[in-house]
Amino acid sequence: MPELPEVEALAHHLRENAVGRTVTRVDLASLTVLKTVQPPWTELHGRAVTDADRHGKFLDVVLGDLHLIVHLARAGWLRWSDTLAATPPRQGRGPLAMRVHLGSPGEGPGFDLTEAGTKKDLAVWVVAEPTEVAGIARLGPDALTVDRAALAALFAGRTERLKTALTDQSLIAGVGNAYSDEIMHTARLSPYATVGKLDADALDRLAEAVHAVLVAAVRRSVGQHAARLKGEKRAGLRVHGRTGLPCPVCGDLVREVSFADRSFQYCPTCQTGGRLLADRRMSRLLK
User: Fold this and answer.
1) Is the Cα dihedral 93, 99, 105, 110 positive or negative?
2) Is residue 281 flagged as an active site residue?
3) Annotated active-site residue in 262, 275, 280, 287
4) Who contacts 177 (Cβ-Cβ below 8 Å, separation ≥6)?
5) What pLDDT was estimated at residue 287?
6) Dihedral-angle region of residue 92 (phi above 0 means left; psi in -120 to 50 means alpha; beta otherwise)
7) Does residue 287 fall inside a structural domain?
8) Is 182 designated active site?
């Protein structure tokens, strides 16, 4: 899933390549991807891209007084092309959901919004204000702005596990499954730690880790071509997606806890005092 660093990089890429260009045509290949009716998506035609922004994990393409908001979900992506095909795509065929031409079709540049797999969660809104999108209106503070004091205030009295809290967009915006694993590993904290019980030292380490992990990822990602961002993300991960490989800090094997449709990874030596966390699919959890 694209998270804060990748969406920030995509926004940067659009600021560098799309701002100043005019939308000449929008091809809607999947009717279900569009979540708004008014204003109609055809209102984008003839509008110039004036900016690109990010709200948590939402991408915001600004076209004057309208915003094309995109949430890429788990398997969505933005593909930039210096020359897009002129032939309109067939609806319901393949991964393409929407195509935005920023020049003469068949000659000019633009971007595709695509989604792999059969579960289609990619979502697009055309709105006058970003906060008209319910997911944006519910966002907590952006993860890049959260410091130690903010974390203490956000977590005070809460009983969620740390893994759950870090990925709750209404608490902290922008962090998903992969970077939460990296943050917890860097902070040397268990995914099952109760956030309201974190002591002062743990909060200090967590705040430092949130900043260090995300800033480093943004620096690696911004300036990369959109097609290379996924590979750049994987290359920078120390524990997420590395089950069975040695921890780069201590050499212990990275372990995994699986859920119905996702999993997280952690290092027992670095994060849980050597204790293994039982798989959520089992009836007993080790704390």
Assistant:
1) negative
2) no
3) 262
4) 1, 167, 240, 262, 264
5) 42
6) left
7) no
8) no
pLDDT in tens, 157-210: 999 999 999 999 999 999 999 999 999 999 999 999 999 999 999 999 999 999
The answer to whether position 278 is within a domain reads no
Query: Looking at the domain assignment, is residue 150 inside a domain?
Result: yes
211: domain range? 143-271
Residue 130 and residue 12 in one domain: yes
CATH number for 189: 1.10.8.50
Catalytic residue among 2, 95, 130, 268: 2
In terms of domains, do 54 and 173 share one? no
Query: Does pLDDT of 283 surpass 80?
Result: no
pLDDT digits (tens, 9 = 90+) for 31-77: 899 999 999 999 999 999 999 999 999 999 999 999 999 999 999 99
Q: Given the residues 25, 57, 99, 242, select the one marked as catalytic.
A: 57
Our answer to whether residue 57 is catalytic in this structure is yes
Contact indicator for 177, 184 with CB cutoff of 8 Å: no
Inside any domain, residue 243: yes
- Is 287 catalytic? The answer is no
Our count of domains for the chain comes to 2
Which one of the listed residues 3, 6, 115, 182 is annotated catalytic? 3
Phi, psi for residue 78 in degrees, rounded to 5 = -110, 125
The reply to whether 266 and 148 lie within a common domain is yes
* Pairwise CA distance, residues 211 & 168, whole Å: 17
